[in-house]
Write a structure and sequence with these properties.
Helices cover 47% and strands 6% of the residues. It has 171 residues and is mainly α.
Length: 171
């Protein structure tokens, strides 16, 4: 098994992290973006295709998928913005020395499913990618492309953020 894989399986139960992501995202209405409607992507995830990705990148992908956070917001979370030991686990998106896109970007996001599991494994965030959103994006997009997990070249990691929005609208 890939190093760290057993931690992921334990963190989200017997289904494993990838299967849990599928269950959280595989609403047929999410096909509005075309990302999750692609059989190759869904089949690849079901086979554990993300387990070869480094642990921090995989965790950030799950976080983005289950929260709709922007890539830069996800990779720049830290122990002061991640709150796991409270009644409703959540993250705070704050300026934290960075420019925010809009005032509405400052917000509190509750954590559930794979997002919660990812941050339980990374309670201090993703230090490998702090202030390196572009390299994170390039790594994940290349990983997905090399494994045939992007329905088209236009479907990128950022597209996954939009599937969250589509699922909210469809609900």
């Amino acid at each position: 098994m890939i190093r760290g894989g057993e931690r992921w399986l334990g963190a989200v139960g017997a289904l494993g992290a990838v299967a849990a992501l599928l269950l959280a995202l595989a609403d047929p209405r999410a096909a509005l973006t075309g990302w999750l409607g692609a059989a190759a992507f869904v089949a690849g995830l079901a086979e554990g295709a993300l387990m070869g990705m480094n642990d921090e990148a995989r965790g950030a992908v799950f976080l983005i998928a289950d929260t709709g956070l922007r890539l830069s917001e996800a990779v720049n979370l830290n122990e002061t913005t991640i709150h796991l030991d409270c009644d409703i686990p959540h993250v705070e998106v704050l300026p934290d020395g960075r420019r925010v896109k809009t005032q509405d970007s400052i917000r509190i996001i509750p954590l559930v499913g794979c997002a919660l599991a990812a941050l339980k494994m990374h309670p201090r965030g993703f230090p490998r990618y702090v202030d390196k959103g572009a390299s994170f994006s390039a790594y994940v997009n290349r990983y997905l492309l090399d494994r045939g997990l992007r329905p088209t070249r236009k479907h990128t990691l950022y597209s996954l953020r939009h599937t969250f929005k589509d699922r909210l609208i469809a609900a």
